């Protein structure tokens, strides 16, 4: 079975600073990778996903993540954060493709990003 | 457009009581999922349903049952609640294959359950 490790449980940063949230997974087969964001008292929302193609994926609000197969990582980065980015971020992985498999995710423990003014 | 709606949002039970969490979607998605979220553990899959009338176990199904009576609704039942089932429960649907939402889970706002 696969596992996902988010190396930092909390990441405090100042506004406009860069940030990296780290995610490593354990699997020797092909994987499909996701980052979800959860704002307080809400459900999770997809931030970005890697299913195939370019290993660098971007979101509409400036986040990006790079799939690194040799290092089994999918770190999330943003060059300049805003107060509104304060939330909990979850990395997730699935081995299966298509059908219901994309929804059968193994999640990491979550990283709370707090952006200070 | 409500998306994925869960009821109730909050519930307190005593050990041994039963209850059902309801989930309804208006997104016309086939696949639906129930996850539980616990601090420091991320989310874990309880049960899922590929389509109306079918259900399958996820990672942590013990103590739960589910029903998928129609395309819109997927309920989660606790027959005899235990304190270990204190958690936040999320229902989700899966975006349609071949669309920009391929692989994307759409989550409800959650149901916070406390078992005393």
Task: Note down, in words, how this protein is organized.
The complex is a heterodimer of chains A (117) and B (116). By secondary structure, chain A is an all-beta fold. Helix content of chain A is 0%, strand content 51%. Chain A contains no helices and 12 strands. In chain A, strands 2, 5, 6, 10, 11 and 12 form a 6-stranded mixed β-sheet that branches. A 4-stranded antiparallel β-sheet of chain A has the order 3-9-8-7, with no helix packed on it. Chain A has a two-stranded antiparallel ribbon with strand order 1-4. In chain A, strand 8 and strand 9 form a beta hairpin. Chain A starts with a strand and ends with a strand. The model of chain A has no long low-confidence stretch (mean pLDDT 92). By secondary structure, chain B is mostly beta strands. Chain B is 0% helix and 47% strand. Chain B is built from no helices and 11 strands. In chain B, strand 4 and strand 5 form a beta hairpin. The termini of chain B are far apart. At the A-B interface, strand 5, strand 6 and strand 11 of A face strand 5 and strand 9 of B.
List keywords for this structure.
heterodimer; A: 117 residues; mainly beta; 12 strands; 0% helix; 51% strand; B: mainly beta; four-stranded antiparallel sheet
Quick overview:
The complex is a heterodimer of chains A (117) and B (116). Chain A is an all-beta fold and 117 residues long. Chain A has strands at 3-6, 10-14, 19-21, 23-26, 32-38, 44-50, 56-58, 64-68, 73-78, 87-94, 106-107, 111-116.
The shape of chain A, in one word, is globular
Straight-line distance between termini of chain A: 41 Å
Residue runs with pLDDT of under 50 for 5 or more positions of chain A: none
- Count of strand segments of chain A: 12
As an assembly, this protein is: heterodimer
Mean pLDDT across all amino acids of chain A: 92
Whole-number mean pLDDT of chain B: 95
Number of DSSP strands of chain B?
11
Number of helices of chain B: 0
Q: Roughly how much helix do the residues of chain B carry, as a percent range?
A: under 10%
Helix content of chain A: under 10%
The largest sheet of chain A, given as strand count, sense and whether it forms a barrel, is: 6 strands, mixed
Query: Nearest-angstrom radius of gyration of chain B?
Result: 14 Å
Structural class of chain B comes to mainly beta
Q: Total helix count of chain A?
A: 0
- Kindly report how far apart the N and C termini of chain B lie: 36 Å
Q: Give the amount of beta strand of chain B, in percent.
A: over 45%
Low-pLDDT ranges of chain B: none
> Radius of gyration of chain A from the CA trace?
14 Å
Identify the biggest protein-protein contact and residues per side. A-B, 27 and 26 residues
